[in-house]
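Batch manifest, entry 17 of 40.
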Amino acid sequence: MDLPAIAADLAAHWHVYATMPFIAALIGYLTKRVAIEMMFRPLEFRGLRPFLGWQGVIPANSRRMATTAVDLLTKNLLDPREVFARLDPEEMVAQLEEPLLKAVDEVTREVFETYQPRLWEMLPARAQQLLVDRVRAQAPAVVKRLMREVASNVDEVLDVNDMLINAMVRDKSLTCRLIREVAAPEFRFIARSGIGFGFVIGLVQLLAWALTKQPVIMPIFGFVTGFVTDWLALKMIFYPRQPRRFLFFTWQGMFQKRRAQVAADYGALIAEEVLTAGNVLEAVLTGPRADKLFALVTREVQRTVDAQAGLAKPLVALAVGGREYQQMKQAAAEKAIAYLPETVKHVESYATNALDVRNTIVDKMQQLTPLEFEGILRPAFKQDEWKLIAVGAVIGGLVGELQVLLLLH
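Output type: structure tokens
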């Protein structure tokens, strides 16, 4: 080893050597930024399938990500029966009073005008109103019965998993936001950690180049910088799960350390973007189990028609044939169902407050074990993190090769 020659070279090219740690730090930072962006962008595949192109890791696996997140929600954080039991039938009826009575009024008049137009026209206005009022009087009790039955058999009318997964798959940006916003500090740490890690590796790179002058050193160190810093940053997010002392300092995985803030952010996002009252009502009315709800509504409406027909026999029942009477009951049920979407919109605000999804999730997340808590974010990285590390390593190697060209030429 010719130390005088090495010293002379360092003196002659000190500015070149001085840049090495800083370039390595830049490589560390840029590879992290690229890796993070590649997790989320683009939302749709761009390029030539199947080999040339890219889609963000999370959008490309949105169904798997959504399924994992929903499994966590429904198994550990939310019990649909417990949550929906918070809806008070009395309060629901109070919130629905005006639109409900309006809908009952219109349905009753439309059905009679369709199936018994002559009879309806012959009835004095007071008799018409008496019949409508009798039906209106029964409406609150019918809604309360329906509410109690739905609350006690929520699984029969609402597929919570299907609703949540479809909401997240339908809007890939929502799945990305769920991870990106909850883990924003972790992503900042990943990017910034590349600077420190890269600088340290750059110092070793400087020494290796001074001793060997081998062109292969630069791309190798660039590759190592990208690989090691990506791998190490990802590990430091999650591990160790419990605080551990390393020489003069204590470290705990950032995600575990921020448990309280993560719970608050995650609960808010789920409550405001995913498990909203609007999404729930839409799923109940249009989801795969909507027919069960419509069967309940049909039964209750037809039961009410029977009760009122019995009370109003002198006016109605004798004038309606058996077959036509059944058609009239079915029509009343169908019209009542048609009014449901517009009517239930009036309870969204009450339902949001009553369900209290945000606070429920926050409280339950505080009770998770460290391993269960890690499951909130870890699936976003685990299966495809090798791609992100590989990309960081390749970019680092290419930048290292560029350094060689600059040094030699």
